[in-house]
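Intended use. Records such as the TIR domain-containing protein entry shown here are meant for training and evaluating sequence-to-structure methods. They are not intended to support clinical decisions.
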Amino acid sequence: MAYRNKTYVCFDGDNDMSYYRLMTAWKANDNSDFNFHNAHDLNSARDTSEEESIKRQLRERFANSKLLVVLIGDNTRFLRKFVKWEMEVALRLNMPIVGVNLNGERYRTELCPATIRDELAIYVPFKQKIIQHAMDNWPEDHARRKKAGETGPFYYNDSVYTKLGLYS
């Protein structure tokens, strides 16, 4: 059994790669507190690979992951081949999910993929401090809420954003 300490980031590779790259740049910046153990560092699934080969590599990433971050852009809800499959795997594994709205919204929006729309997940805007807060705190909150039988989308209240110095 692999040690699960990684964060699996799921996103539209055709349209939202720049957001994923920005997250990795935040992580690499010595002046930033942003940090996560990136599951994508385990292997690199290539676009030219066969679907089953890619999924085998993605399953390896999941085996080492404790959290799924879904970058939700304009087209994410329409993706059926890998992004939907990744969300379904995370749900089967009872993995905590952080939905990150690339449009800056704090709440689940109409852009949210149907696969996770009514599932137990936390939603935040694409801002460094609140994403880090969610990655650090949601796994424990998720476990507690799951045990209590809670479902559906969750959001941080204004006091969390104020505490983090975010006023949007």
